[in-house]
Each structure stands twice: as structure tokens, then as C-alpha cells.
Amino acid sequence: MNFPFYIARRYLFSKKSTNAINVISAISVIGVAVATTALVVTLSVFNGFSDLVGSLFTAFDPQLLVTPTEGKTAPADDPVLTQIRELPQIEVATECVEDQALVVYGGQQAMVTIKGVDDNFDKLTHIREILYGNGDYELHAADMHYGILGIRLAELLGTGYRYDGPLRVYAPRREGQLDLSDPADGFVEDELYSPGVLFCVQQGKYDRSYVLTSIGFARRIFDRQGMVSSLALRLKPGSNFESVKKQIRQIAGDRYQVLDRYEQQDDTFRIMKIEKLIAYIFLTFILMVACFNIIGSLSMLIIDKKDDVVTLRNLGATDRQITQVFLFEGRMISAIGAIIGILLGLLLCWLQQTFGIISFGSNEGFFIVDAYPVSVHPWDIVLVFFTVLAVGFLAVWYPVRYFSRRLLEK
After folding, report:
1. For residues 360-369, b (16+ Cβ closer than 10 Å) or e, as one string?
2. CA distances from 269 to 113, 210, 241 (A)
3. How far apart are alpha carbons 274 and 268 in whole angstroms?
4. What distance in Å separates the CA atoms of residue 144 and residue 137, rounded to the nearest whole number?
5. Interstrand relation of 90-105 and 167-172 (parallel, antiparallel or unpaired)
6. Rounded distance, CA 406 to CA 397, Å?
7. How many CA atoms, within 13 angstroms, populate the side-chain half-sphere of residue 68?
8. In whole angstroms, what is the distance from residue 18 CA to residue 23 CA?
9. What backbone torsions phi and psi does residue 315 show, to the nearest 5 degrees?
10. Which of 369, 75, 396, 91 is nearest to 238 (CA)?
């Protein structure tokens, strides 16, 4: 058995001559445990919000999205896209054309994003699960094209679930010169009709500015015949997602970028990651303050055990081994506090997941969820554990060496 560790363990659990040392040691463990619990719970709450937002985007965003690296569109019959479509792991491939336009209804107008998709878009995503109204999911019927609005956009335009008249859509002409005597001639005008439903992603990016329609309508009004803005993909169940994504990226080369759901919403998730990192840094500083209690406990222990130090030296212990005794003492306090804190944090996370103890308030149904979401990620627990050990080691390293040297010099 490691000699310094054995002595340190005896010192930690044995009764000291001064009871205050036991009290301070207990306070040190409690302080580290509380800070560790705060780290576990806070990081898990950030994970919960991230997973919640990711689940909301799942209903509208495809598993993989292939977009041109340069320019807005690419030929739909590009051999590269054809090769990607024909991969055996691809279950659904949907062509999309997306661009900005002006919509007008009943005296109200708004700049929107027109997203034209193939008829199999409902098989690509979970769009049917987020539709509200008394109609059905339809994009076109014969020569009539339907427009499914985001719920906040419908509120802005005053359309309701089913708008009676047509929704007028205006898009700038891509070719030709503008006739200043007739500015309206610089726009392509068309109409969309209501299928009786709206979609609600519960994300303002989509609900306030998107209109979902057929790809034929989008190609006509944006003059993008035979072109696509993106190719949306869904994989067959059981496919190795990362492997397929890597394979598609190799096929796409530099001409196309291949994005998963998180990369499609990179701005949103990057902000959440930054917030989580800042919270981790601030709580680590609080953990450092809690570790100062360990310094006080070890300082008093070193003074209390000065007679034992003389005995250990007479028995042949080196100065380095004696110093390691007190270093191990500090590390053990940090480790015990870390284990207790992690277990307590996991318990609190389980209680929140199961019972929703901390809610968003009395306005039930006003928020997406009624209580704070929590998701425990194993790597976060590993990070917290080693953070506590590292901070505890750094906090006691210099003070222990300083006090031990002073004691050994006497």
C-alpha cells in the first residue's frame, strides 16, 4: 500500500485532538459537494434545453441537408446529387427551392421565406404532427397551389387557420430591366390558397416567416426551373448515421455542404453551447472558493500533527513523503466531496425529470413544457468529476508545500 496515502486516510477519518479540525474538514467536504452538485444540475439543465430545442426542429428539419457551397441553387439533375439520391441507405430524398418573397393578405403584408418542397415532404419530416386546423396536409391540387403558413405569420396577416381569399405572393424578376414607369412589372405575382391548416414548430424562425408550398410553385415564382436550393434526405432505419454522412460528404466534395440537424441550426446551438460554457466557468470559480476551506483544514491539521511529523521522520519517512501525506489529504477531501456532489446532483436531476419539482410558474400550458427540462450526459459527469479533482489539487498544492516546508524546517 502507498505509505503517504495510508497515513492520509488515517488522518482523515481519525479523531483529531482539536475538534475544530473535524468540523472544518466536514465543512470542506460539504462545500465541495454543494459546488459539484451545482455543476451537475446546471449543466444538465442546459442539456435539457438543448435537447428540447433539438426535438422541436426535428419536426421541420430533415436528417441531412445537402446545399450548394456557392450560389443559392444547383441543377436538380447534377450527377453528384443523383449519386447521393441513389445511395442504398437513403429512404426519402426531397428537392427544395427556398427564397424570399413578399406576401399580401387583406391589407397586411410581410416578408417571408417561401419553401417549396416535393410531395413526399411529409415522409421526410414530422410535419403532420405539428399541423393545426380543420384541413389536411396538401401542397397542390391540379393547377391550384396551397400555402401552409407558420402560426405566428398567420396571426400577423390575420388569416386564421383557413384564409378565405388568395394569399398574393410577389417575388422580384431575375431577368430583364426594370421599367421605372411600371415598377410592378419588376415583380412576378402569383397566388396561394389555404389547405385549412397551419404549422407550429414553436420556434420563431419558422413560425413567423415561413410559408410551405409545392416545389412547382416556388420554381415558377422564383424562375428556378430545373434547379434546387437543397436536397433533403432521410435515412433508412438502422443506418449508421455518421458513416452515411461521411460517405455523402465524400461524394459531395467541395461543391456541396452536408449538414445534420444541429449544423442546420448552428447559430442557435452555438449560442447555447457558449452559455453552457460560461455557466461552467463561473461555477468552477465558485468551486475554487469552496476549496479554500480545504486549505484551512489542512493548515490546522499540519499544525496539529507536528509531533507525528517528527515521529515519521525518525521512522525514515522522507520530506517528500510527509508532504505527500497532506497532499493526499486534500485530494481525498476533494474526491469525497466530488462523489457526494455528483450523487446528490444525479438524484436532483432524477427528481426533476420524474416529478418536475421546479416549474415555470402558474401559467400551465403557456410554455412548451411545464417544468425545467433536464438531461444528464455521461461526459458532463466525467468532466465535473475531473474538474473538481483538478481544482482541489491546484488549490492545496502550494499551501501544503509551503506549510509542510515551514514545519519540516523547524
Report:
1. eeeeeeeeee
2. 22, 20, 20
3. 10
4. 14
5. antiparallel
6. 14
7. 15
8. 9
9. -80, -5
10. 91
Nearest-Å Rg of the Cα atoms of the chain is 32
Say if residues 137 and 123 touch (Cβ distance below 8 Å): no
Q: Is 43 in contact with 349 (CB distance < 8 Å)?
A: no
Torsion of CA 80, 82, 88, 94, to 10 degrees: 110
The per-residue DSSP string of 154-181 comes to: HHHHT--SS-SS-EEEEEE-SSS---TT
CB 298 within 8 A of CB 399: yes
Backbone φ, ψ for residue 235 (5° rounding):
-90, 160
Torsions phi, psi for 131 (to 5 deg): -95, 140
Distance from C-alpha of 352 to C-alpha of 366, rounded to nearest angstrom = 19
pTM for this predicted structure: 0.78
Model confidence over 97-153: pLDDT tens digits?
Answer: 999 999 999 889 999 999 999 999 999 999 999 999 988 999 999 889 999 999 999
Cα–Cα dist 382/130, whole Å? 37
Q: Residue 141 pairs with which residues in a beta bridge?
A: 144
Residues in the chain: 410
pLDDT tens string 240-264:
999 999 999 999 999 999 999 889 9
Q: Are 44 and 346 in contact (CB under 8 A)?
A: no
What DSSP state is assigned to residue 375?
-
Q: Indicate the DSSP class of residue 236.
A: P
228: left (phi over 0), alpha (psi -120 to 50) or beta: beta
Cell 427540462 found at: 373
